[in-house]
From TrEMBL:
Leader sequence segment: 1-26
Family: Belongs to the glycosyl hydrolase 18 family.
Annotated GH18 domain residues: 28-212
Catalytic activity, as annotated: Random endo-hydrolysis of N-acetyl-beta-D-glucosaminide (1->4)-beta-linkages in chitin and chitodextrins
Ranges in coiled-coil conformation: none
MF annotations from Gene Ontology: chitin binding; endochitinase activity
Pfam families: Glyco_hydro_18 (PF00704)
SUPFAM superfamilies assigned: (Trans)glycosidases
GO biological process, one term: polysaccharide catabolic process
The protein, known as: GH18 domain-containing protein
Length: 212
């Protein structure tokens, strides 16, 4: 139970949309966050990989130049250890890099604002995925079209984010896992109300992670 609490296991809240992550379409997946600051209490090598389909490493951080960085050099070492531990376990557990989070979403709006910035951001994410040999990426923008922890936002965020996700899929290809972390409603659009059409997102991603 201690391990489940520390990993913030989210169970069936992680819902596959397109069936790309599971033989049966739209089946729940058991996932959990593992944050670099928990390493002293729960080293990657101590995680029971049999409990999880996916482990999200938290967090990659968007930069003003539309790249991805980390809290420290130790963060990348821990990410590599997590990937190695998952492979060694031979349970089929995938490791996904979660980008953003509550305090690190300030550059998302600018990163998805134009065709050029979207492509740059997507290509830099691809480089990080290749470098650290993770299975994919989770986009945890809090929040498109509305304020999180002081992040800038614009009325066009939701539309721009959907276009970005399409670009990201084109850059990463079909084999990479792409997920988005969302609240219980779609992102706010130009009217300030949740958008009603998320079809572009649905065609680009594998699953959503609903925050509770």
């Amino acid at each position: 139970m201690k391990q489940l609490r520390q990993l913030a296991a989210l169970g069936p809240a992680f819902l596959a949309l397109l069936g790309g992550l599971s033989p049966a379409a739209a089946q729940p997946l058991l996932t959990g966050y593992w944050a670099d600051w928990t390493a002293a209490d729960l080293p990657p090598e101590s995680i029971d990989m049999t409990r999880f389909d996916i482990i999200n490493f938290s967090f990659g951080i968007p930069t003003p130049s539309f790249d991805v960085t980390f809290n420290s050099a130790q963060s990348t070492v821990l990410l590599q250890r997590l990937v190695a531990a998952a492979l060694k376990a031979k349970t089929g557990t995938r490791v996904v890099l979660s980008i953003g989070g509550w305090i690190s979403s300030q550059y998302f709006s600018a990163a998805v604002a134009t065709d050029a910035s979207r492509l740059t951001f997507a290509r830099n994410i691809y480089k990080v995925i290749q470098l650290y040999k993770v299975d994919g990426v989770d986009m945890d923008w809090e929040y498109p079209g509305s304020a999180g922890s002081g992040n800038p936002f614009t009325p066009s965020d939701a539309d721009n984010f959907q276009i970005f996700l399409k670009t990201l899929r084109q850059v990463l290809g079909t084999s990479a896992i792409i997920t988005v972390t969302v609240s219980h409603e779609p992102w706010d659009g130009p009217s300030g109300q949740p958008i009603t059409d998320v079809s572009i997102t649905a065609s680009a991603i594998d699953a959503i992670l609903i925050m509770n």
